[in-house]
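To close the chapter, one final illustration. This time we ask the reader to focus less on the individual chains and more on the assembly as a whole: which components sit near each other, and how the overall shape emerges from the parts.
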Amino acid sequence: MRRVYLDNAATTPVRAEVAELIHEYMVKHFGNPSSVHWFGREARRGLDRAREQVAGLIGAHPDEIVFTSGGTEADNLAIKGVAALKGIQGKHLITSAIEHHAIIHSTEQLERQGLQVTYLAVDEHGLVEPDHLAHALRPETILASVMLANNEVGTIQPIRELAALCRAKGVLFHTDAVQAAGQLDIDVKALDVDLMSISSHKLYGPKGIGALYIRKGCRVEPLAHGGGHERKRRAGTENLPGIVGFGLAAELSRQELPERREHLEALRDRLVQGILGGISHSRLNGHPQLRLPNNCNVSIEFVEGESMLLNLDLLGIAASSGSACTSGALEPSHVLLAMGLSHELAHGSLRFSLGRQNTAGDVDYVISTLPGIVARLREISPLHAGRE
Amino acid sequence: MAEVYLDNSATTRVWPEVPQLMESVYRDQYGNPSSLHKRGVVAEKVLDTSRQELAAAVGCHPHELFFTSGGTEANNWAVFGLAGVRKPRGKRIITTAVEHPSILVPLDVLAERGFEVIRLPVDWRGELEASRLAAALTPDTVLVTIMAVNNEVGAVQDWAALSPLVRERAPHAAVHVDAVQALAKLPLLCLEQADTVSFSAHKLHGPQGVGALYVREGTRIQPLIFGGEQERKLRAGTENVAGVAGFALAVRLCRERGQELMQLLHELYQGLSDIPGFGCNGPTPGAGAPHILNAYFEGIPRGEVLVHALASRGVYVSTGSACHSRRSRPSHVLSAMHRSGDALTGAVRFSLGAATTREEIRQAVAATAEAVAELRLHSGKGSRSGAAGYGALR
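The assembled structure is written out below.
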């Protein structure tokens, strides 16, 4: 059976050269980078190079990169690290209604401790309106956090504009770029953000490693204390094999970015057109233009997303109904609901996320398979009875 | 000369099978365990199997084991997570002066937030006397955190004697044990006595960047990292599947192939004690952990100088905790043990691993004898009093 992996927003396969480098570091350069002896120094050289590579992907200085255990920890560190320094009681934070749960659950935790939080609404395409942010800013606002590109629908936010509004008021700005890094040309200096989260396993690196960009001069209170690692910003023996793997994946992503983007966009457009053209009562979720090169999120009326997923899986196609982190939940996507979709449409959504390894043949396989699945499911759907 | 790596308390070389397994996970089981499709299911199975295997090895139920990014995160999570939910009951926290920084620094943070943190002194071997703990415990104590094995000197705390005191005198207190240096080294891991116990993979020939926290069923604990439903909603973030699989395999291989390190430690001790002026900080072999020996030599006042002299002879040791090795402050552990002079500032830690051989011990002893003699000669002390002068100090 043909196997097509179209869930690259959930995680990506580690590329072979990255897996080899990780293996090499585990076997040959296994030192603790904090150790002063040769093994430790060799480890530190790997650490330093990886930091340059990751910094290079987003236009940062290597000193501004703090390695974490992943995107979730980076998001937690940004939100809670700023709040711990700037204060919680009587203070205010702004974010959007469509953030990843790593942000939303962190802000909810801080709300229980007395922080006031504004969740900005988004329009039908998932865009945050800069005016809304401007109006939400208060003298006691300590931080705004808006994701660069959404993990479910792929909408790309006007980060430069949003960050500038915050800069003008002296408010720190964080962006979760976990989905965008490796797909979009990102420059933290041009965007003028203070903090940015990125993750390795979304760009063909290993799981268990990510980074937070912390602009020089910006301070955050660590989440994990104890040891001078990461310039005292994140304690714990460095996950060196993970870090060098992330570094190489970041470096390769930077080099391949223009072709990767072109490749993914062509596949995405082919997939979107194929699905919308082949299935009645289907619609694209997210912004028609301002969207990630790899994201195709569609709602198909009168069918359950999960039923479609199971049927696709039986035919060798891996996709998702939204974020993998909440895929066990029966709740409809908070992102789609925030964009104004009905519960029915939100439940009938599918996310195909493309990767560098996908081909036009993969996309055509989905285009030829999905309509049949939908037709069968609609036949037995009470929602669909008597519609067509 | 072949390299002799005796810094296994800092980090270890992985078992050769561990990176092989991890590479195969990267290649074949790359899915996100939370995904519903086959790729997700396959990855989830790797996670489940690894969790079951580790749980069986440490002696707990699989759903009591939560994966983290390492020992430091596990310790931070335990301290903040246990104290956080118990704040209404009291603010007293009891620990020892010789804990790892990943316990002591979070406790400093809690002290700033209004908790009363008692750092109990230890005896000259680095052990906590039960009577000291008994005297410190009060009914409003909310957390007791004491390590199983000290990472710098190998002192082992007598949890069997300590835990009844806690249960009796501080019934509301949660108990955390930092067992990072104990897993795969000691037969018992204090799970019986504790509410939470922390572990790390890279100290036992597993990968860096993965650890675990045992959380006894029913224990109330706040998450440290929020944002997803992974790890029963207590630790968010896509699971490090390959790392977790490598962790489980490393523990299994330690059980299958691990040798009796205590005999080698005895041999190391015997060999080093023939060097004039030798002294040992902490327990002597047999009285502490089987893999750590903290040594010093009279007339060698700076441990890092000896570390470098040994490194130039292909023998890799450390002055103490690797986390501190870039600072020159004397060890908080040795200070708490009332060590002074050369014993405090000249200490070096030899730590053994599963692959350490008798020949390596012999080489390490020979290199140390040479390095010590050379350093004494350079400092001018050796030439006058001679080696015999140091013999008297023992």
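Residues 358-379 of chain B form the longest helix (22 residues). Chain B touches chain A through 76 residues (CB under 8 Å). With these observations in hand, you are ready for the problems at the end of the chapter.
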